[in-house]
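Inverse folding, one chain.
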């Protein structure tokens, strides 16, 4: 019970720290940017920014508490110096590419430098274990929350164009409590000592300390993906599964490396390398696979159903093909608007769902039904969403400099 009190006390310090509040503000700005993108594509914002922010903060706090309990109970003790090196390096790497803020890159680099040069002096096994646990928590967040508020767009594809797709972009602020070997002058969580089992900590530091302290820190977990061959919830389940496999493998290597020294090198290289490989293979599978939302030969493909719309109340779902409305064939949005312009108070639609054709009905005798509230995959369009990497500030500045130099040479 005393240990639980210490963990919750330190966790409370994490969620009330100025650093956590700052990360929450960053998440707010990120969601606000995505909201503007959604309004430009759909013409409407489905969920308020405040609701989306509350969602990511709540999930981040719950997962952060789970990770904190796991870290302390297992006994993953991190050198305080490691924390001081990882965060600045992660922020620096983000300047090149936004996804490099992930701790797998910074943790792997710091671990490898420490092994090769002896500086900074850190326990590599514990640091790699922390990376594994954070990614295990990230896989859980992706499965539980990653698919929510996914943005329907249409893209150019090598097989068909246009093709419907779903853009998923999430950032979760994660308050954490970690075990550290105290350093002089470090600001650590307060609390008394607690008796632990003989096997604890599982990851024993090279210079075994007699006392460990709880340190409240803040991490950031992000998820950026696009679903082309699957629905968003199917895509996040698959992504979360493979990330969970990755984190399990990293944790196993961390445990082995705490007993076999040369495995530390393998773990330090594997953490960023396999994370990058996982992202590359995942993206390639979506871009080269068979699209799930191609334009049908007949009818209109449903890409998104807006909340509280007639279509949602009828039971229309993503991926459905609208074939007929009130007995008339529908092969374009102009044909759909023509039918709805006749002051309809009662409509019935024939919809193809997978291999079955079903009939759905809706009535509203107070106001005529002028819009179904459906975003379709357009048959023809000159507007496509570009699937590009989110480059960091350095790359964007370099691109702008090169562009200005080319303009100056052409004059």
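Residues assigned per position:
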């Amino acid at each position: 019970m005393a240990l639980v009190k210490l963990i919750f006390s330190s966790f409370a310090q994490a969620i009330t720290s100025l650093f956590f509040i700052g990360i929450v503000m960053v998440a707010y700005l990120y969601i606000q940017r995505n909201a503007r993108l959604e309004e430009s594509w759909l013409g409407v914002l489905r969920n308020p920014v405040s609701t989306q922010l509350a969602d990511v903060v709540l999930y981040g706090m719950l997962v952060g508490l789970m990770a904190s309990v796991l870290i302390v109970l297992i006994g993953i003790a991190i050198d305080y110096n490691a924390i001081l090196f990882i965060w600045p390096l992660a922020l620096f790497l983000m300047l090149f590419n936004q996804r490099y803020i992930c701790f797998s890159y910074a943790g792997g680099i710091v671990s490898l430098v420490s092994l090769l040069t002896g500086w900074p002096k850190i326990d590599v096994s514990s640091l790699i274990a922390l990376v594994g646990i954070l990614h295990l928590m990230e896989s859980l967040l992706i499965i539980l929350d990653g698919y929510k508020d996914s943005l329907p767009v249409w893209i150019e594809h090598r097989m068909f164009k246009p093709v419907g797709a779903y853009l998923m972009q999430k950032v979760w602020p994660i308050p954490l409590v970690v075990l550290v070997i105290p350093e002089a002058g470090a600001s650590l969580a307060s609390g008394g000592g607690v008796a632990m089992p003989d096997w604890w900590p599982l990851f024993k530091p090279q210079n075994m300390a007699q006392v460990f302290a709880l340190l409240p820190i803040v991490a950031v977990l992000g998820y950026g993906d696009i679903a082309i061959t699957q629905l968003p919830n199917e895509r996040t389940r698959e992504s979360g599964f493979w990330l969970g496999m990755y984190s399990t493998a990293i944790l196993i290597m961390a445990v082995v490396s705490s007993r076999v020294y040369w495995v530390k090198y393998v773990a330090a290289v594997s953490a960023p390398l396999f994370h990058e490989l996982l992202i590359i293979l995942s993206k390639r599978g979506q871009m080269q696979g068979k699209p799930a939302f191609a334009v049908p030969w007949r009818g209109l493909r449903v890409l998104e159903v807006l909340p509280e719309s007639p279509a949602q109340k009828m039971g229309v779902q993503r991926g459905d093909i609208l074939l007929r409305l009130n007995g008339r064939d529908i092969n374009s949005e102009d044909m759909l608007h023509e039918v709805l312009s006749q002051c309809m108070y009662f409509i019935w639609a024939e919809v193809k769902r997978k291999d079955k054709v079903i009939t759905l009905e809706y009535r509203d005798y107070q106001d005529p039904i002028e819009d179904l509230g459906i975003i379709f995959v357009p048959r023809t369009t000159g507007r496509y969403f570009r699937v590009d990497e989110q480059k960091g500030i350095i790359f964007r500045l370099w691109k702008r400099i090169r562009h200005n130099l080319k303009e100056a040479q052409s004059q």
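The first strand starts at residue 77 and ends at 79. Strands lie at 77-79, 151-155, 163-181, 213-227, 300-305, 321-325, 328-329, 346-353, 356-363, 374-376.
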